[in-house]
């Protein structure tokens, strides 16, 4: 991996990029954005882009965590339940003991890590497939949460939490204020952290290796259990952090509202090119996957399509995208076989 | 995959447990639970009334689980069963509420038949899309059915704007709420599906091919089986089972909606795996699934009678999978240490 590509390495890198999944996603997103900015006045405004980032931050943050698990060759759909539990525990204790920002995030992250560790232990030690384990733990975490809390909302959040953060405030000509809010900050940090973990650490290479071929990785001496603990713990941690960003945006904690979104996140990550068989997937792709679904839904609303039809278009996009990807993959493999 | 790694899977060990497989194992668990609940609740859990109410609740989840099981056996997964069922139910409901009330005599029956056929047609289309995308384009089943699930649900929401269609003719309502000699019709429908399904899966060439594909698709293809056609059949069958579930579900509620039964989706996978279906495909019997469904239903009914939250039931269902798998590992470790001692 070259840090500063010279001209000689840049050309093949560009050629490689043009064949990549991310390139085509970028083309589709670019076309979509172009059409939307020509068709509507409101798409390409700072206001809309800020809203888009803020409202999709929760899905985006979770996507950065789920990507790591998918790259490692696993799958986890319990993270929405994890997020619900983390949110509830952190803010309940936070209110009771008057905790500040750091303690809240530490607490939510810790609860998330514990839930992730439970997944990792079950998956590795009981040797059942990760999807079955995470379906089971989704039901366990969520069932126990609603059972113990009775599904009650928390609305009286502390004042500093309700106010959130707004750094680098800036007012445009019309006096509309913009600021870096909590959701966008966490979103950026989450993607940066996932990128660092996967691309700039030794462990990241091990995660790719394990996802690519678990048996080979094991024979090379990689500790599969430790890596599983890391990736599921990481997703749990990210889910815990995401849950607070979501609670801050919603200005309340509703234990029933997050569960059910897990497949949306999975769809976004997979649209970004991550493979369910592991070893494949990039942070840039995941960002593009989230962006595509976000811009699509935002655009439909702006163009004036009834929001009742949102899901239909999302479904169509997912089905087309995965079909085209699989089909071109198949053709490439066939071409290779002939040569 | 080698024979050794397959044998190491907990599901398979459970199959060997008690010399006979999942059914005896689940029967033991079930008897223990019934004994405990019987002591706690007495007549209320083992009486005729309780049995009948369980028999009304079981078929919906049961038929949906059969639909999931077929896909699981082939090494896949069908996340779109509930969305398909709701789309079919809405199609049938639309024909029934717009055409049937105005029709008389022969056409009154005719439109109801047409309604059901329309539902079957919708299911067939969804099933063929799933099958085509999975078998011929090579998309992983989770992704393909995630796409069709979102599309079907989107279509249902888009057309109905999230509203409910209700008020069906008596024969349809009878399917969900009627009884024959004290036995709920829905249960009869479920059992009438289980037997042909068991025969289809275990006694016909199609069934054998499904199990073979679940064990190793590549090996099956190299042995001359048209795996693509079989997979197309698997997802078609899964969809057609979903339309039966749709009929039972809409009949029971006397209404149809885009979001009914969504919480069942992941539970069907749990039920199938608990019933001994290997989540990687290739192993599992209808009998095991039925036992698992009865077990889940008994827990749910007893918790309901004990006044526990339904969410606790959901948690226990999830825990049951982990416990059964853990039991498998424990038996294996004990077996291994015994083997060493000898």
Care to describe what's here?
The complex is a heterodimer of chains A (339) and B (342). Chain A has helices at residues 7-19, 21-39, 46-71, 79-97, 101-126, 130-149, 159-163, 182-199, 202-212, 214-219, 224-250, 262-271, 283-303, 310-338, and strands spanning 166-171, 177-181. Chain A has 339 residues and is mainly α. Chain A has a single domain (29-305), classed as Orthogonal Bundle (ABC transporter involved in vitamin B12 uptake, BtuC). In chain A, strands 1-2 form a two-stranded antiparallel sheet. In chain A, helix 5 packs across helix 6, helix 5 packs antiparallel against helix 11 and helix 8 runs antiparallel to helix 11. Chain A is globular and about 65 Å long. Chain A starts with 6 loop residues before the first helix and ends with a helix. In chain A, 45% of the residues are buried. The mean pLDDT of chain A is 88. By secondary structure, chain B is an all-alpha fold. Chain B has one domain (3-341): Orthogonal Bundle (ABC transporter involved in vitamin B12 uptake, BtuC). Chain B is 78% helix and 2% strand. Chain B is built from 16 helices and four strands. Chain B has helices at residues 3-7, 10-16, 22-41, 43-46, 48-73, 81-98, 105-136, 141-160, 170-177, 185-203, 205-215, 217-222, 227-253, 264-274, 286-305, 310-341, and strands at 165-166, 179-180, 183-184, 255-256. In chain B, the strands form two sheets. In chain B, strands 1-4 form a two-stranded antiparallel sheet. In chain B, strands 2-3 form a two-stranded antiparallel ribbon. The longest helix of chain B has 32 residues, at 105-136. The two termini of chain B are 29 Å apart. Mean pLDDT of chain B is 86; it is low at 1-7. At the A-B interface, helix 5, helix 6, helix 12 and helix 14 of A face helix 8, helix 14 and helix 16 of B.
């Amino acid at each position: 991996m070259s840090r500063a590509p010279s001209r000689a390495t840049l050309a093949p890198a560009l050629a490689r990029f043009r064949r990549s999944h991310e390139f085509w996603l970028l083309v589709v997103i670019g076309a979509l954005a172009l059409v939307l900015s020509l068709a509507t006045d409101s798409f390409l405004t700072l206001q809309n882009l800020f809203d888009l980032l803020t409202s999709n931050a929760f899905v985006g943050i979770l996507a950065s965590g789920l990507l790591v698990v998918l790259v490692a060759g696993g799958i986890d759909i319990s993270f929405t339940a994890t997020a619900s539990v983390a949110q509830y525990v952190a803010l309940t204790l936070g209110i009771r003991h008057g905790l500040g920002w750091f303690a809240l995030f530490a607490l939510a992250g810790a609860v998330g890590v514990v839930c992730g560790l439970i997944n990792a232990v079950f998956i590795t030690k009981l040797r059942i497939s990760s999807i079955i384990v995470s379906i089971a733990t989704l039901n366990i975490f969520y069932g126990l949460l609603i059972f113990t809390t009775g599904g009650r909302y928390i609305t009286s959040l502390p004042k500093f939490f309700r106010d959130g953060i707004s750094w680098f405030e800036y007012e445009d000509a019309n006096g509309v204020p913009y600021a870096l809010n909590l959701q966008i900050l966490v979103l950026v940090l989450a993607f940066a952290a996932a990128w660092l973990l996967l691309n700039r650490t030794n462990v990241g290479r091990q995660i790719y290796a394990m996802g690519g071929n678990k048996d080979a990785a094991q024979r090379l001496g990689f500790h599969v259990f430790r890596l599983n603990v890391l990736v599921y713990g990481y997703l749990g941690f990210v889910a815990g952090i995401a849950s607070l960003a979501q609670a801050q945006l919603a200005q309340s904690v509703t234990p029933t509202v997050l569960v059910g979104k897990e497949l949306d996140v999975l769809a976004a990550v997979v649209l970004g090119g991550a493979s369910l068989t592991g070893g494949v997937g990039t942070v840039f792709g995941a960002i593009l996957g989230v962006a595509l679904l976000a811009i699509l839904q935002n655009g439909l609303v702006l163009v004036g399509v009834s929001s009742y039809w949102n899901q239909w278009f999302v479904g169509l996009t997912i089905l087309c995208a995965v079909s085209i990807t699989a089909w071109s993959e198949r053709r490439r493999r066939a071409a290779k076989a002939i040569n | 995959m080698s024979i050794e790694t397959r044998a190491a899977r907990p599901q398979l060990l459970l199959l060997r447990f008690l010399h006979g497989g999942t059914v005896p194992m689940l029967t033991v668990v079930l008897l223990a639970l019934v004994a405990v609940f019987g002591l706690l609740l007495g007549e209320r859990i083992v009486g005729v009334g309780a049995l009948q109410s369980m028999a009304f609740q079981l078929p919906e989840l049961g038929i949906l689980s059969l639909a999931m099981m077929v896909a699981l056996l082939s090494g896949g997964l069908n996340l779109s069963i509930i969305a398909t069922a709701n789309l079919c139910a809405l199609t049938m409901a639309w024909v029934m509420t717009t055409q049937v009330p105005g029709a008389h005599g022969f056409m009154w029956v005719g439109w109801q038949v047409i309604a059901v056929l329309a539902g079957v047609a919708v299911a067939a289309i969804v099933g063929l899309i799933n099958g085509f995308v999975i078998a011929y384009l090579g998309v992983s089943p989770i992704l393909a059915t995630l796409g069709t699930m979102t599309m079907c649900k989107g279509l249902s929401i888009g057309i109905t704007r999230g509203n409910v269609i209700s008020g069906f003719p008596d024969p349809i309502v009878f399917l969900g709420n009627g009884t024959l000699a004290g036995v709920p019709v829905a249960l009869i429908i479920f059992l009438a599906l289980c037997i042909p399904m068991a025969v289809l899966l275990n006694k016909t060439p199609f069934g054998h091919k499904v199990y073979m594909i679940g064990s190793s698709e590549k090996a099956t293809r190299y042995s001359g089986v048209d795996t693509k056609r079989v997979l197309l059949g698997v997802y078609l069958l899964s969809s057609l089972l979903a339309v039966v579930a749709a009929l039972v579900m809409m009949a029971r509620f006397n209404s149809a909606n885009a979001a009914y039964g969504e919480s069942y989706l992941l539970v069907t996978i749990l039920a199938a795996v608990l019933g001994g279906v290997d989540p990687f495909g290739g192993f599992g019997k209808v009998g095991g699934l039925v036992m698992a469904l009865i077990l889940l239903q008994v827990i749910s009914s007893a918790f309901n009678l004990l006044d526990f939250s339904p969410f606790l039931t959901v948690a226990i269902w999830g825990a049951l999978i982990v416990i059964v798998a853990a039991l498998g590992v424990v038996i294996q470790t004990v077996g291994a240490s015994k083997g060493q001692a000898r």
